[in-house]
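User: I'm putting together a teaching handout on how multi-component assemblies are represented. Below are the sequence lines for each component of a complex, exactly as they appear in our records. Could you produce the 3D structure of the whole assembly as structure tokens, so the students can see both representations side by side? Please keep the chain order the same as the input.
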Amino acid sequence: MEEMQIFLSLSLDFAEINEVLRSLNEGFVKSLEIFVLTLLGAFPLGLIIAFGSMSKIAIIRWFNKFMVWVIRGTPLMLQLIIIYYGPGIILNNNWWGSGSTGRFIAAMIAFILNYACYFSEIYRGGIEGIPKGQYEAGEVLGMTKSQIFFRVVLLQVIKRIIPPMGNEIITLVKDTSLVRVISVYELMWNGQNFIKSEGIIWPMLFTGVYYLLFSGLLTLFLGWLEKKMDYFKV
Amino acid sequence: MAILEVKNLKKNFGGLEVLKGIDFSLEKGDVMAVIGSSGNGKTTLLRCINFLETPDEGEITMNGEILFDASAKNSTDENDIRKKRLHFGLVFQNFNLFPQYTVLGNVMLAKELLEKEKPGFAKNRKKIKAEIEAEAKALLEEVGLSDKLDFYPHQLSGGQQQRVAIARALALKPDILCFDEPTSALDPELTAEVLKVIKSLAKSNMTMIVVTHEMTFAREVANRIIFMDEGRILEEGSPEDIFENPKHERVREFIGGIGTI
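Assistant: Of course. Below is the structure of the complete assembly, with chains in the same order as your input.
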């Protein structure tokens, strides 16, 4: 009887499991927030950067290309650290305050900027890949530039960029774990915490299941979206 | 009176003079074939007339209205250019249909967008749309594609795609319809079905400019032919003039060369 109890407490400590899942769920919600906000910010910002790097005005073009080079050429982790600690150390003025909100905002700025730069290159590739004839056909039919973009080109661009965008989006799921370097508590941080506080390692390993399930759902969604666009060929 | 007059049209591409002064005029119902070997400015001429390129010199006049005059200040306002463009239609070598629209959608799109900008569209939305659709269907029947209305471009043969492109251009009722080597991307069988459509347009008195390498077709359908060589019109005249009595050695060579193949 006693042995049985020891065995149960070793293998299935429901209180502990509950505590772990509660904490991981909380962390996952934070990760999800970062994920959603990054996409909401980076989708439009990426388009602006893409147009910037295709601008006829050289200075705008070069500014955007320079930015994309710097952001894509350095680790996102470094960008998080510079954006969060930079103002305090370099300008002697910590914009972000000491609270968790400031850290979260700094993290979102770094993420949106980083992903917007990657997206911008995907957009640019998609837009430049549309044959010139599509624009010219629209022009000789008396369409305006914006009509051509929104009614003719855009959907073709979207169809073309779904696969590379899907790649970036799946990468973002896992990149959310980087915010821990500036102490934003997300899924993996919460999992790792149990090593220090309780001496158990399975919660951290178990975070992998969350990432897998979430990216699995996204993969299904992206596949569905691709199928939706199957009715025409570009 | 000529409906289209082109005077001294010149176009440079980075120092390379592609058009060296082109003059011609068209009467209503004329079918003008533009022939000559590749790289002699035929396509550039069509692109200038359709405002896809801006000529460096020259004048384009339509029904007495100056559409373009290189020596004057030309409006760069998008709406002005669009209005001028609508005098012309252009059918491309590679069709350039819009892949995400059905056959019917391709023919209706531009007309619909145009009508939307007019006042009173919102009130009569349904009626106007129905009219546009009826017209589009009639045009597609004319080009023999009534049974393909709901097909997407990738489901059609090249010849069918080109016929859709012709219907699409006609939907805007251009004064002059231009063709840029409309059958170069097609095999002989498909070429024949497209040429048949162009022939029937000629019979219905449509004014057309056709850049083509189909000599038999040019001879049969066109009432005027211009032969372009190195950015100039080397010779122009009726099909008999050009094919039976060419004045220039270069034209004789070109036509003779084709004849012997």
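A couple of points students might notice: The first helix of chain A runs from residue 2 to 11. Chain A touches chain B through 23 residues (CB under 8 Å).
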